[in-house]
Amino acid sequence: MSLERFVGKVAVVTGASAGIGRELVKALVKEGVTVAGLARRSERIEEIAQELKNEKGKLHAFKCDLTKDEEILATFKKITETLGPISILVNNAGLSPATELIDGDISKWRQIIDTNILALSICTREAIASMKANNIKGHIVHINSIAGHMPLDLVGFSVYPATKYAVTALTESLRREINRNGLPIKVTSVSPGYVETDFFVSMYDSKDLPAYLERSGLKAKDVADTVVYVLSTPEHVNVAGISRRVERVQEHANQLKNGNGSLHPFKCDLTKDKEILDTFKKIIETLGPIHILVNNAGVAPATALIDGDIKRWRQIIDTNVIGLSICTREAIANMKANNTKGHIVHVNSVLGHEIGEFPYLSVYPGSKHAVTALTECLRREINRNNLPIKITSVSPGGVSTEFAEVNLGAEGVKRFENVPLLSADDVADTIVYVLSTPEHVNIRELTVNIQGQLY
Ligand SMILES: NC(=O)c1ccc[n+]([C@@H]2O[C@H](COP(=O)([O-])OP(=O)(O)OC[C@H]3O[C@@H](n4cnc5c(N)ncnc54)[C@H](OP(=O)(O)O)[C@@H]3O)[C@@H](O)[C@H]2O)c1
């Protein structure tokens, strides 16, 4: 992970006085970035700046109450005048003073909405104006939350999820505006689960803390590391072997023979249950227990639903859904038997979350939507069974592989001829990052797109 392209450039981080923001500004300054940290308690940011005074980059404190529009505008003006144009904005500040909908306090509702939605949008507008004026290949990161994707049943936590759902929608609307305007700016939403910061402490009296919070959570540094990873992806990447043709895997193995690990080819057709079972048996007998399974194999022969070819439908479902589920079952049986802290990665697709507009691909999105649901059902089974196994869905947009040629033929290749695509390396790097996270951190879903594209 390297932030080389941002060394000496300006990053704005809101909510830099505590929690995630504090860890993030430390990480960025250590990487050589010039950071403008915003918060009401700016004296705390001054203290952090002191701690960091011998590091490669520099932290500058800006006192700003994000519920006040004029203060935000004046602060951004001051930042660009004193530090220069903005390359990174991390909208991290957020809060959730305890309040309910039935009998809640309107001033708290307004504070949550003003900080989590409006301030985020104003900061984004100001940062984009600076990036646009200076033709900067910038990056905007919204610190969202799992509460931005699912409602949580917590007392006093009724307004916050609505603000984070809004952040989810704002991220995607902004992505579309940026693409329509051809701006070279990336947008990423990072959605942590429970993080051990002052967030909930300031929300509840310590005696009222819900049981949910008694378990250990992520550390603020884990989220900061995730943001650093997202920022470190190459300019064109936006931060989301078993084979039938075994001779090709053998060729890769030969090329890799001087590496630290080794690659062992296993011939297996994933549409044949018995072949999968025999292959897993052979893998375990010859190589030992399994620690990682990457369910990467997938097909999408061109077919329609109205008058499609049933054989093709079956091939897609058998490979992408049933093959994946059998491999997962076999890997988990082995991880369980050996008490392995394993990791399963499903290579999903952006079409596992949206449908897109691809005339040749009517069944494929169905199979990938199934992978999205299977990932989450498996997560629940794993948690219910207390297994120390991680499960992650990685959803790439279009990738430059043989996929179009193999599945869609010459016409398909032509269709993608002038479309910018991710490289296979980009996706491999994403999976390596997911696997490299510390034991207690689980990336649930990581969508990776080519910058400027939706699919
Ligand atoms: N902790 C979690 O479990 C969790 C989980 C998922 C997502 N998140 C999200 O992560 C982000 C950071 O939260 P955290 O856990 O690090 O919380 P935290 O430790 O309570 O820090 C919140 C930060 O927001 C700043 N802030 C709040 N209101 C502000 C205002 N009006 N003007 C300027 N700054 C303001 C605070 O600074 P001052 O008070 O000094 O102004 C502080 O620096 C939030 O967006 C939160 O929604 C947290």
From TrEMBL:
Q: Which InterPro entries match?
A: NAD(P)-bd_dom_sf, Sc_DH/Rdtase_CS, SDR_fam
SUPFAM superfamilies this protein is in? NAD(P)-binding Rossmann-fold domains
What molecular functions are annotated in GO for this chain? oxidoreductase activity, acting on the CH-OH group of donors, NAD or NADP as acceptor
Sorted keywords for this record are:
Oxidoreductase
What Pfam families does UniProt report for this protein, alphabetically?
Answer: adh_short
The reply on keyword Oxidoreductase is yes
Family note = Belongs to the short-chain dehydrogenases/reductases (SDR) family.
Instruction: Kindly provide the name given to this protein in its UniProt entry.
Output: Farnesol dehydrogenase-like
Encoding gene per record: LOC115883389
